[in-house]
Design a protein that fits this description.
heterodimer, A: mainly beta, seven-stranded mixed β-sheet, four-stranded antiparallel β-sheet, 11 strands, about 0% helix, B: mainly beta, five-stranded antiparallel β-sheet
């Protein structure tokens, strides 16, 4: 069964450094998403991406964040200058509007980001 | 915000028992979804129920939706140790064609063998 993959599984970085989290969505999906989950807290929406541009973004997704689909398979989240409070689990998801609509999203296993 | 809140926060049962988790939300929705998250893993989609549906089944899962009370419940029948996980409801907000789910804090379910 196709699945969303994410790399790395764990990233440790120093405050102020840039990080890029990588995702490979399911190949025929058209909508892509990033979420984060701070330890013990809710899963929070960051951004959705469709047709090579951002569809929606939350207030969390400020100028420090950017997303890109650099080729036909990868979807990346960049945090320009990490802060301690960026430490969280980051989940990528994708959906296929043509079959299940945008609602049924398939999540990757997540990248645990630790900012020291 | 269209926030789902699960209740109880934690539930501990014996294998074979049924587990019921509830979700309440604040404003009108188009649909509501339930997800499972095993410890340290991503979310797995379980069931979507639309606002015009009252009940939906999938295997041992039964979801109900009461839009007048703005609440939903997830029932897992004949629970197994492998059902141990956190369960989240997510309510929707359509904006610009994208679907933006809002997740609750989840119910942590422990099923003892």
């Amino acid at each position: 069964e196709p699945e969303v993959t994410q790399t790395p599984s764990h990233q440790v970085t120093q405050m102020g450094q840039e990080v890029i989290l990588r995702c490979v969505p399911i190949s025929n999906h058209l909508y892509f998403y990033w979420y984060r989950q701070i330890l013990g807290q809710k899963v929070e929406f960051l951004v959705s991406f469709y047709n090579n541009e951002i569809s929606e973004k939350s207030e969390i997704f400020d100028d420090q964040f950017s997303v890109e689909r650099p080729d036909g398979s990868n979807f990346t989240l960049k945090i320009r200058s990490t802060k301690l409070e960026d430490s969280a689990m980051y989940f990528c998801a994708s959906s296929d509007i043509r079959t299940s609509g945008p609602y049924e999203q398939y999540f990757g296993p997540g990248t645990r980001l630790t900012v020291t | 915000s269209q926030q789902g809140e699960e209740d109880p926060q934690a539930l501990s049962i014996q294998e074979g028992e049924n587990a019921t988790m509830n979700c309440s939300y604040k404003t009108s929705i188009n649909n509501l979804q339930w997800y499972r998250q095993n410890s340290g893993r991503g979310l797995v989609h379980l069931i979507l129920i639309r606002s015009n549906e009252r009940e939906k089944h999938s295997g041992r899962l039964r979801v109900t939706l009461d839009t007048s009370k703005k609440s939903s419940s997830l029932l897992i029948t004949a629970s197994r140790a492998a059902d141990t996980a956190s369960y989240f409801c997510a309510t929707d907000a359509m904006a610009g064609g994208s679907y933006i789910p809002t997740f609750g804090r989840g119910t942590s379910l422990i099923v003892h063998p």
